[in-house]
Known about the structure:
The chain has helices at 6-16, 19-26, 33-43, 88-99, 113-119, 135-147, 166-170, 210-215, 229-237, 260-268, 283-291, 301-333; strands at 45-47, 62-64, 67-69, 73-75, 103-106, 125-129, 153-156, 221-226, 242-245, 273-277, 297-299, 346-348.
Amino acid sequence: MPLACLTDFQAYARERLSKSTWDFIEEGADDNFTRDDNIAAFKRIRLRPRYLKNVAKVDTRTTIQGEEIAAPICIAPTGFHCLLWPDGEMSTARAAQAAGVCYITSMFATCALEDIAATAPRGLKWFQLYAHPDRQLNKQLLQRVESLGFRALVITVDVPKLGNRRQDIRNQLDLKMSLLLKDLHFPKERTSMPYFQMSPIDSSISWNDLSWLQSITRLPIILKGILTKEDAELAVKHNVNGIIVSNHGGRQLDDVPIDALAEVVAAVKGKMEVYLDGGIRTGNDVLKALALGAKCVFLGRPILWGLAYKGEHGVEEVLNIIKNEFHTSMTLTGCLSVAEINRDLIQFSRL
Ligand SMILES: Cc1cc2nc3c(=O)[nH]c(=O)nc-3n(C[C@H](O)[C@H](O)[C@H](O)COP(=O)(O)O)c2cc1C
């Protein structure tokens, strides 16, 4: 039976994957409140369609950081794709290229960055960094990233410490270092440590370090994980180029909202692009996020479900389904172009 929507891929992945891999992908932190609320939040929003607008030609294209994408639906950074498919991130990169969308490659990629870049040379790729305590290592990594043609640097700010993921503890998850961090060259003696005991992320990083990060790269810098107007204003003050409103798919701090999008959009006053990830599962979700001011959304887990289904072709199917759904959402609400999507298209349900 063909798979018809993104949650069909979720059901397939659940059947196929080992319990510990499934739990690793799926779980959130603590009580999973935020993970589940990310999905529920979109259901609290209703659409206000406009009709009789001649929607014979609907165009889903847009731009991010000045570069065209086929639809405002791209791929969020997630680590360890080789857990799900043999050539992991290389499959993901080819699928993104075929779909004409941006792929944010995680620093925790399990394929070498050179191979990811070479397998999809025409695809738009950004690189996601967790600042490493060794500053020299960050610098070297960013030089490689630039020379390989990645077009923006995404700095994830919501992991000064790993969230409390209970299932990984219960499953005694041990992602062997043979799978891990080919780009970081950790000393050999650390190679068998479970990833949640490793500490490659610099928890001392602060706003004061942004100018240093800006000084070691020419790439635009996007901060991923901003959830408040206070931090959004600081991002503007520090001349950041974009924000991804994200609660890490509910995997870090629990009990935080995805509704922060509207707050952040208002705070930046159009001075930078704002994007969203977390809980996007349908074309209507994409439309709602754009109506609230996001320039583009990113998918996390659905890409991993697609990879688990059929590698590159599974990810392509996931992207094509949600792109088609978004085209339908635009057509049925009377939007001919992405620029026409605005706040008047939505209302908050009283439920
Ligand atoms: C298995 C998994 C691994 C992830 N790895 C990273 C990562 O390496 N870097 C990062 O910034 N975010 C990471 N994330 C968070 C995603 O980028 C994204 O914020 C989140 O998955 C979006 O929510 P969604 O899964 O509901 O689409 C990961 C998420 C998952 C599920």
